[in-house]
Specification:
Largest sheet: 6 strands, mixed
Radius of gyration: 27 Å
Number of strands: 21
Length: 438
């Protein structure tokens, strides 16, 4: 029986039972398994580090600790320990708010352009009882249901067989080897139109694996029903080979999201550059990117007529020349650029999202990093605008109504705004009004 531990971003796990009122506690064996998982967690990107999302520490009198930061999702260690890490949303603190937190997290996930959940709906989904991994399994199930409704694709598949009738092409060497004493048979190669293609093999293999992993009755029932549509399909015997043979085009576009999900489940990949081992898996998401995409998607719907939005714009560089030659260096990529034409002039507003928890201490610049302010100043000068906004999530240490502006004295004003994720539409509508009426 697996154990589910639910924590929030920035929470700490310890192994010292004397501090169970202060931290989430794991037994020594489970804690050792977690440490081993972190140390063996691999990355496809040489610039990525597991310490980007988890910190192994040691506290005096307490012992070893593990703290999760900036990444949320679910980690499963050796099929017996699941750790569900939810985003820390200031207004949602109690256990009864975990369902709401998961709902907000899923909304944020759906805002990500490349996240494969286009067919996902919350209908008949018990978010309160399902952990994140079961919810992701349900997302995959809904994608397969979408495929089945539109029709599983077939293709011409090359086959070899020893047949009593001649068709296709005779394989001379194999024919002589197998039929020296059977003149009535033919060893031939031929093409047959069937469903046994790489895409379907991978989907079936994924369903079979998820059937073993799920603890949800609803998910298990749906998987059993879906497998009946793949009875004529063989499970994949070589994942890498079949993934390499998948070609997504106009005829196979219904498999696009499914293949992404299949790679996640079959190869224990995550949507980040990290990957688990055969006995462990993780689905982790960077909150910085989630916050950015969620704010941008919500903000786009609230902009008044005449305003345009550009995300991750690559238009300016910090330096345009190198040794008197035109040689651009150090690109500037603001999260969101808003523009509107006023009296034949273009008004530009820069917004940058930061998933950081500020503190109400003016003397320490509220915890804003110096590098972030340098970045905002560069945006102001290169985009020739004084209107710069830094967007942070609301937290219990900062009053969302507090007005904070930094004026450089030479034409740059950086304003802070705190986004309430529980009421993001009202919160961002207030931001739009502040910008438009400025």
């Amino acid at each position: 029986m697996s154990t589910l531990i639910e924590i929030k971003e920035f929470d700490t796990i310890a192994e010292n039972q004397d501090y169970k009122n202060q931290y989430t506690i794991l037994e020594k064996n489970s804690f050792d398994d977690l440490i081993q998982f972190i140390q063996t967690f691999d990355s496809d990107n040489s610039e990525s580090d597991v310490l980007d999302f988890v910190k192994i520490g040691y506290k005096r009198n307490i012992g070893r600790t593990v703290t999760f930061k900036n990444y949320v999702g679910l980690i499963q260690v050796k099929d017996k320990l699941k750790i569900q890490v939810l985003p820390k949303i200031a207004s949602l603190k109690d256990d009864k708010d975990k369902t709401k937190t998961k709902e907000i997290f899923l909304k944020m996930l759906r805002s990500m352009k490349d996240f494969p959940c286009k067919s996902f709906t919350k209908a008949n989904l018990n978010i309160k009882k399902m952990n994140l991994y079961e919810i992701f399994i349900n997302m995959y199930i809904q994608e397969v249901l979408h495929l089945v409704k539109r029709g599983i694709k077939s293709d011409y598949v090359n086959c070899e067989d020893n047949l009593p009738v001649y068709k296709g092409k005779l394989l001379v060497n194999e024919h002589l080897k197998h039929n020296y004493m059977h003149k009535e048979r033919f060893y031939v190669s031929f093409d047959e139109y069937k469903e046994n293609r790489p895409e379907n093999k991978l989907v079936k293999s994924t369903l079979l694996k998820l059937q073993k992993l799920t603890n949800s009755f609803e998910n298990s029932k749906n998987i059993r029903q879906l497998l009946t549509f793949f009875e004529l399909v063989d499970p994949s015997s070589n994942y890498d080979q079949d993934f390499s043979r998948v070609v997504i085009n106009r005829n196979t576009k219904d498999y696009d999201n499914l293949i992404i999900w299949s790679k996640v489940f079959l190869k224990n990949k995550s949507f980040t550059s990290f990957a688990g081992t055969n006995s462990s898996r993780a689905l982790l998401f960077p909150m910085e990117k989630l916050f950015e995409s969620y704010v941008a998607q919500s903000l786009r719907k609230l902009l008044p007529k005449g305003w345009t939005m550009s995300c991750q714009e690559k238009k300016h560089y910090l330096f345009e020349k190198l040794n008197d030659d035109k040689y651009r260096r150090f690109s500037l990529i603001p999260d969101i650029v808003l523009r509107v034409n006023n009296d034949k002039e273009t008004r530009t507003v820069i917004l940058d999202t930061k998933w950081k928890r500020l503190v109400d201490k003016k003397e320490s610049n509220y915890g804003i990093s110096q590098s972030d302010m340098y970045q905002m100043y560069a945006y102001s000068k290169k985009y020739n605008t004084k209107e710069i906004w830094l967007l942070y999530p609301v937290n219990e240490r900062m009053n969302s109504e507090t007005k904070i502006n930094f004026d450089s004295g030479d034409g740059t004003i950086v304003s802070l705004f705190f986004v309430d994720l529980e009421n993001e539409q009202q919160s961002l509508n207030n931001l739009v009004n502040l910008i438009v009426l400025n």
